[in-house]
Amino acid sequence: MLNQDSDSSLEDDRLRLIFTCCHPALEPPARVALTLRALGGLTTGEIARAFLVAEPAMGKRIVRAKRKIADAHIPYRVPEDEDLPERLRGVLRVVYLIFNEGYAATEGERLVRDELCAEAIRLGDLLCVLMPDEPEVWGLSALMLLHDARRGARVDSGGGFVSLDAQDRSLWNAEELAAGRERLERAVRLGRPGEYVVQAAVAAAELQDPIDWAQIAELYGALAVLNPSPVIELNRAVAIGFSSGPEAGLAALEPLLGESALERYQPLYAAHADLLRRSGDARGAVSAYEQAISLTANEVEREELERRLRELSK
User: Fold this and answer.
1) pLDDT of 121 strictly over 60
2) Which of 45, 39, 72, 42 is nearest to 58 (CA)?
3) What's the whole-number mean pLDDT along residues 284-309?
4) If you placed Cys at 136, which of 1, 84, 91, 194 could pair as Cys (CB 3.0 to 4.6 Å)?
5) Residue 89, CA distances (Å) to 85, 135, 297, 308 in order
6) In the 8-state DSSP scheme, what is residue 166?
């Protein structure tokens, strides 16, 4: 049972529970996974894909976290204000992954789950009020707003996927763009930029016309130092492919094809297919598109990948 006897500034029930579940006695991945399952509205499969692990492995991780709480008699107590900073990293990761699943749904008939995006943005707003001196709080809020502002242009009138370079910018939400830019500027002024501030800078760079892909590649390089991850390296390879040509992008992506963590990661094969197509290797692109399609559980993404595959066959 949750013990709410605490000198805490947390007033929102959902945010109180997230801070409570992100207990420092649990390993960071376990506390985030458990919180997402209990409070984030994500299934075990969706959480597993976010962590690049198999669903059974994630299920066991969540069970172990619950067991540790029970065995160690860890109390579900709302943390006091002085305890919030040590839990903030986990809380930010929870909110970030809720937004990610909302913005690019891993399965189903919708590309975007509006309700998850809205809730993550709401939680981000609350965190900005609660911890206004934390640059990563403002960075995450900026990141979500800058992405969400483009939501209305990501599918066409028939529900089909629209790539970033083909989006109708008049459909972007000007109010969210302005708020996102303002929050990014505030995060930068606070100094100590972390991964969310850098990701927000990437999102802001994607708003340029034309997009400066070389700058984005550099930002992903900086992000890889802050948070080494094969997914970040994949995004960097894509940016290199746009800034320096598909051959350069393929050279950066090639080592990732042997990464066990990305073995069933659909965006890797979709990016590989696109780079191969642009380099003139139609045969290789067909194979990569087929692999990407086999790993796709989102219908909007599947239809777009199938459309690109059909174009290669003409």
Assistant:
1) yes
2) 45
3) 96
4) 194
5) 8, 12, 30, 39
6) G
Q: Give me the amino acid identity at 166.
A: A
**Banded model confidence at residue 79, pLDDT cuts 50, 70, 90:** confident
- How many residues does this entry show for the chain? 314
Distance CA 241, CA 201 (A): 19
Distance between CA atoms of residues 204 and 226, nearest Å: 19
Mean pLDDT of all residues in 129-157: 96
CA distances in angstroms from 14 to 125, 130, 307, listed in the order given: 13, 14, 41
For the four alpha carbons of 264, 266, 268 and 274, in that order, the dihedral sign comes to positive
- CA dihedral sign, ordered 282, 288, 289, 291: positive
Task: Tell me the mean pLDDT in the region 46-65.
Answer: 92
Residues 158-180 have a mean pLDDT of 95
pLDDT of residue 4: 42
CB 34 within 8 A of CB 77: no
Burial per residue of 81-119, b for 16 or more beta-carbon CB atoms within 10 angstroms, e otherwise:
eeebeebbbbbbbbbbbbbbbbbbbbeeeebbbeebbeb
Q: What is the DSSP letter of 79?
A: P
Does a cis peptide bond (omega within 30 degrees of 0) precede residue 210? yes
Q: Is the pLDDT of residue 26 over 90?
A: no
- Cα distances (Å, whole numbers) of residue 145 to 168, 170, 172: 18, 16, 11
To the nearest 10 degrees (0 to 180), the angle between helices 135-148 and 84-103 is: 10
